[in-house]
Model the fold of this input.
Amino acid sequence: MKLPAPISFDWDKGNIDKNWVKHKVYFRETEEVFFNKPLKIFPDIKHFENEKRFVALGVTDKKRKLTIIFTIREKKLRVISASDQNKKKKGGYMKKSKSIPKFRNEDEERNFWDKADIVDYFDIDNPIELDLTKLKPSTESISLRLPAYLLARIKEIANSRDVPYQSLIKIFLAERVERELKNP
Done:
């Protein structure tokens, strides 16, 4: 099965906050799962009628185990539902046996997955490969005021490394945040 490689996430008022309200899963946490290992993705082979659905089992940066139901629309990964894995999802998997109902909208589908156990609906003995190499996390633009001398030094370092200075700032911030989280 050849799947389109998603390049971004599809967040809107229909799906950005609903997993937080229902399961205390923040949308940024959901994105982390797709960049961490282990990640297992399973297709809903029987129910590709309207739109392909997949389930992802993975972990956040803080090792929280999540189950995510998603689809891919126009090279965008759209999360339908995200919640903590239950005991069945973490271990002893069973064969797919139940039919997934047809849904009128994403809210109805999200409500279904809030109560259903994915191992009853997906063949989780056969994970698939999904090319996530081009997938980028969602970003936010911020305004950052730096002293002129500091910005000049950053630009000098960036030029010596042949990278844009904004990218170098992101690298420096990411390295420092990682260090701080490891050694609080």
